[in-house]
Each structure stands twice: as C-alpha cells, then as structure tokens.
Amino acid sequence: MNKLRLTVILFIITNLTVFGQSNEWDSLNEKDYSIQYPEKWDLNKSGQMGTSFILFSQLTSKNDKFKENVNLIIQDLTGHNIDLNKYVEISEGQIKTMITDGNIISSNRIKNKVTEFQKVIYTGKQGIFNLKFEQYYWVQHDKAYVLTLTCEVNEFKNFKDIGEKMLDSFKIK
Asked: What is the Cα–Cα distance from 120 to 131, expressed in whole angstroms?
C-alpha cells in the first residue's frame, strides 16, 4: 500500500511539474470582450492589420519562421442589416476568392447556453506559408467579431488544443 501511495504521489508531482507550466494563463479584459491566453504568448494591441489584438506563440525552433497566433477583428455593421447567416455567406465567399488556394474544410453553426456563432476551418497560402485557419464569427450589437487561430498547416495539430482553449474562452460583453 505504501509503495502504491508513493507511486501515485510521484505521478501527481511529475504531472504538476510537466503540465503545470502550461496552465499559467493571463486575461485580456476589454470593454466589449475578454479572452484568456497562455502567459508565454505575446500580446500585441498595436492594431496592426486592423486587429483589436494579436496573441503570438513563441517560435518552436531556429528553423521556425512563423509564429502561430490568435487575433480578433471587430467590424462595425451599423446600417448594413447583416445577420450571422449573411456574414457567414460573405466571409466564405471571400475565403474562396481572396485567399490564395483558399479551401473551406468545415463550416458549422455552434449554439450554447450563452451565444451562437459560426466555426469555420480552412486552408490557404499567404506568401511562402501554407496556413490553416480556425475562425469563429459572431454578429452582435451591430458588430461582427472574427476570432482567428492561424497556424502553419503542419503545426496545426500541435496548436489546435491550446488555440481552441483560447477561442473558447472568448466572451462578448
């Protein structure tokens, strides 16, 4: 029994040491929204490329040239009479026509107790990078909120869980 107890304690300590570091999260709380993200990711609120924020991962090696990221774009829809269905239709059309080799993998409506949004996963090229995107679209308060996880195609599986944890933590106030 003591040997079993020691084994369990060592297992717990090992897991806390190995996995505990990835559980350190920060929050970005703004007037209209909030999101949680890993402490080791870099927050950029400069507004570059029309974003409200961009969260950048760390490079994984000396050969890594792309920082996986999560970003938010908020578009004012006042006076345009655009609901979520219309916004999805417009956005999917832009993916197919404006993204080099844009290919929509899936597009699903998600409803939970609090909100309704569209989850779109697609691939495409930007410059030298083959990318995979996971986007969530909300239309609320005459605004479209577009939250995007962007990864190199071959890194998507490595960032999917942490990326979706960030995307799922996003709340519109």
From this structure: 14
The whole-angstrom separation of Cα 25 and Cα 71 is 17
CATH of the domain at 151: 3.40.1000.10
Tell me how far CA of residue 73 lies from CA of 48, 96, 148, in angstroms: 10, 19, 9
Please provide the size of the chain in residues.
173
Q: Report percent pLDDT > 70 for the chain.
A: 87
Q: Which domain holds residue 87?
A: 24-172
The CA-based angle 126-128-132, given to 5 degrees, is 50
Inside any domain, residue 110: yes
Which residues lie closer than 8 Å to 169 by C-beta, 6 or more apart?
34, 35, 36, 37
The answer, yes or no, to whether residue 8 has pLDDT greater than 80, is: no
In-domain check, residue 46:
yes
Of the candidates 98, 96, 78, 82, the residue with the CA atom closest to the CA atom of residue 137: 82
